[in-house]
C-alpha cells in the first residue's frame, strides 16, 4: 500500500500544479484560443488570471488551462460559450468532490 500511495503522490503533484503559472501568450499557444478571446472569457468571469509581477501580464494556472481546453472543445461541438462554461464548472465541481471523497476513503482504508 505504501508504494501505491507514493505512486499517487507522484502522479498528482499538487505542489507543482499550484506553481505552474503560464503567460497568456503561452496559454494561447497551448490551447489554440486567441489571446483576445481569452481576455473576453476573463471579462465574462469564465476564467480567472493571476496578475503578473508587472501588474499587466495575465498568467493562468493549470486548472484554468484545463478549463480553457474543455470549454473550447464544447464550443467546437456546438455549445454556446455560457453553456460550455457552466458544464465545465459543474464537471470540475463534481471531480473535486469525488476526488476528495476518494482520498478520504483511501485514508480511512489505511487506518
UniProtKB/TrEMBL annotation:
One of its GO terms (molecular function) is DNA-binding transcription factor activity. PROSITE patterns: HTH_MERR_2. InterPro entries: DNA-bd_dom_put_sf, MerR-type_HTH_dom, MerR_fam. Transmembrane segments: none annotated. CDD domains: HTH_GlnR-like. SMART domains: HTH_MERR. Residues 24-90 form the HTH merR-type domain. This is Transcriptional regulator, MerR family.
Amino acid at each position: 500500500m505504501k508504494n501505491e500511495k507514493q505512486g499517487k503522490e507522484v502522479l498528482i503533484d499538487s505542489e507543482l500544479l499550484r506553481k505552474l503559472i503560464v503567460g497568456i501568450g503561452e496559454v494561447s499557444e497551448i490551447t489554440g484560443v486567441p489571446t483576445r478571446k481569452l481576455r473576453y472569457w476573463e471579462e465574462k468571469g469564465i476564467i480567472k488570471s493571476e496578475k503578473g509581477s508587472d501588474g499587466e501580464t495575465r498568467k493562468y494556472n493549470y486548472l484554468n488551462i484545463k478549463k480553457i481546453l474543455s470549454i473550447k472543445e464544447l464550443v467546437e461541438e456546438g455549445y454556446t460559450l455560457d453553456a460550455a462554461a457552466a458544464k465545465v464548472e459543474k464537471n470540475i465541481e463534481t471531480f473535486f468532490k469525488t476526488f476528495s471523497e476518494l482520498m478520504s476513503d483511501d485514508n480511512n482504508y489505511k487506518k
